[in-house]
Amino acid sequence: MAHVISDACTACGACKDSCPVDAIQEGEEKYSIDADTCIDCGACVGECPVEAISPE
Question: In the chain, fewer beta carbons within 10 Å around the N or the C end?
Fold first, then answer.
């Protein structure tokens, strides 16, 4: 089960560097997590300052 980034994302990029498998990509308005690449480690959850990341 992958994590997802909600519309609360401010596109700050804090989560991207924490991902050990580079599953987080920058989008036009928010970042997104590739479900096929995500290993569900949760490293990104604690890095998000607006708590926009949660389990799918």
Answer: N
Closest CA to 47 of 13, 8, 2: 13
* Beta-carbon count within 10 A of 34 CB: 13
Euclidean distance between CA atoms 9 and 30, whole angstroms = 6
Query: Considering Cα of 7, then 35, then 14, then 47, what sign does the dihedral take?
Result: positive
> Which domains can be identified in the chain, with CATH numbers?
1-56 (3.30.70.20)
